[in-house]
Design brief:
Blueprint (H helix, E strand, L loop, with lengths): L4 E8 L2 E6 L4 E5 L5 E3 L14 E5 L4 H4 L1 E10 L2 E12 L2 E10 L14 E3 L4 E6 L17 E6 L20 E4 L10
Antiparallel strand pairs: 1-2, 2-3, 3-4, 5-6, 6-7, 7-8, 9-10, 10-11, 11-12
C-alpha cells in the first residue's frame, strides 16, 4: 500500500520518512506499521519517472530542523527537478521553500534523477538526469545531466568548479550523467 516509494530517511530509530512518486510524503512507524500521510505538501507533477523524489536530512538536522526534498514541478507544462527545504511540524510540512528550480525542461517524462547527499561543510548535492535527451548531459547551459552543489540555504558556493566561467551554470558540480539515481558522500 505504499504506492511507488522513491526516497526514505530515518527521523529516529523507529520513524521513517517516505516520499511517494505520486506526490505523498508520509511517516512510517516501524513498531506499529502505521503510516501517517503528512499535510501541506506542494503540488507535484507526477508523470513517467517524475514526481516526489528524494528526501534527505543534513548533518545539522537535529539542531536546525530543515529537511530537503527533490521533486518535479510543472513549469509551462513541462516538468523540472527542484530542490526544496521544509520543516516537519506535527503531521505537516511547513515553511516549504524551493531552493533551486532547475533549468532542465524536457517534453519527456523520464530521467529526472534525483538523489540528495550532504557533506560536512554545509553543502547539499543533488542529481538531475539528462531528461531523456542525452546531449543535455554535455550542455553546461542547462542543469540536466548534472550533480548540483549548493549551500544549505540554496546559495551558490564560491568554490564551485565552474563559478568563474560565464558559459556554465554556477551550480553545476559535475556533468555528463545520464540519470544518477544514487548519490553518496
Amino acid at each position: 500500500g505504499l504506492g511507488v516509494p522513491w526516497g526514505m530517511v530515518f527521523l529516529s530509530a523507529d520513524k521513517l520518512l517516505l516520499t511517494d512518486r505520486e506526490g505523498a510524503v508520509s511517516i512510517l512507524d516501524l513498531n506499529t506499521s502505521k503510516r501517517t500521510n503528512l499535510k501541506n505538501i506542494p503540488n507535484v507533477m507526477s508523470r513517467g519517472q517524475g514526481g516526489m523524489l528524494d528526501v534527505g536530512l543534513p548533518p545539522n538536522y537535529k539542531t536546525r530542523g530543515w529537511i530537503y526534498f527533490t521533486y518535479v514541478k510543472n513549469v509551462r507544462g513541462e516538468g523540472v527537478t527542484v530542490l526544496a527545504s521544509a520543516r516537519l511540524e506535527k503531521n505537516q510540512i511547513n515553511h516549504w521553500q524551493d531552493l533551486l528550480v532547475s533549468n532542465s525542461t524536457s517534453s519527456t517524462g523520464r530521467h529526472f534523477g534525483s538523489r540528495i547527499a550532504f557533506d560536512n561543510n554545509n553543502h547539499v548535492f543533488f542529481s538531475i538526469g539528462d531528461r531523456g535527451v542525452r546531449p543535455n548531459a554535455q550542455d553546461l547551459t542547462n542543469h540536466a545531466g548534472s550533480i548540483i552543489r549548493l549551500k544549505l540555504d540554496g546559495s551558490i558556493p564560491d568554490d564551485n568548479p565552474f563559478i568563474k566561467n560565464q558559459d556554465v551554470l554556477p551550480e553545476i558540480w559535475s556533468y555528463g550523467h545520464r540519470n544518477p539515481q544514487g548519490l553518496s558522500y
